[in-house]
Amino acid sequence: MSDQPLPITPFLKVPESGDPYLEGWKCDACSAISLKQRMACAKCGGRDTLKPHRLANKGKLHAFSIIYRAFPGIEVPFISAIADLEGGGTITTHMVGIDPEPDKITLGMDIEVTNGIAPRKDGEGNEYMTYYITPA
């Protein structure tokens, strides 16, 4: 069991000091951004052109869905959302800090990336750091 929360995904970086952040891979040739490290750029095909790139914590809501049914133990309703980040990068996560009602959520609204401890531990008792988006 870890003393510190573990990142829920490899592109969530949890430094020993400072705030957690999302890290993508930016192509030096075409500036495309990916959340996964790849052997070649998915946009231009460039090899050895991808470098680590800290993603912005602000952006715009691109799409959302309000989920009313889920696996047992998952609290519903919740908002599953896709956000485009300033400077590039697209993430999928839960949107929190707003009622899950369609008339309160607007496509294109400003969002911020926030971090928190996931609601459940794994079988070994480890806690996980996760990320969400909230209205800005």
Task: Walk me through this protein's architecture.
0% of the residues lie in helices and 43% in strands. It has strands at 6-7, 12-13, 21-27, 33-34, 50-54, 58-67, 78-85, 90-95, 110-117, 128-135. The relative contact order is 0.22. It has no helices and ten strands. It is an all-beta fold. The mean pLDDT is 95. The chain is globular and about 45 Å long. The strands form two sheets. The chain has a six-stranded mixed β-sheet with strand order 1-10-9-6-7-8, with no helix packed on it. Strands 2, 3, 4 and 5 form a four-stranded antiparallel β-sheet that branches.
Which secondary structure elements does this structure contain, and how are they paired or packed?
Layout: E1 6-7, E2 12-13, E3 21-27, E4 33-34, E5 50-54, E6 58-67, E7 78-85, E8 90-95, E9 110-117, E10 128-135
Parallel strand pairs: 1-10
Antiparallel strand pairs: 2-3, 3-4, 3-5, 6-7, 6-9, 7-8, 9-10
Notable features of this structure?
single chain; 136 residues; mainly beta
Coarse structural class: mainly beta
Mean pLDDT: 95
| Beta strand % | 35-45%
* Rg estimate, integer Å: 16 Å
Q: Give a quick account of the main beta sheet: strands, pairing sense, barrel closure.
A: 6 strands, mixed
> Which strands sit side by side, in order, in the main sheet?
1-10-9-6-7-8
Helical coverage, percent range: under 10%
Low-confidence stretches: none
Count of helical regions: 0
Quick rundown:
The protein has 136 residues and is an all-beta fold. It contains no helices and 10 strands.
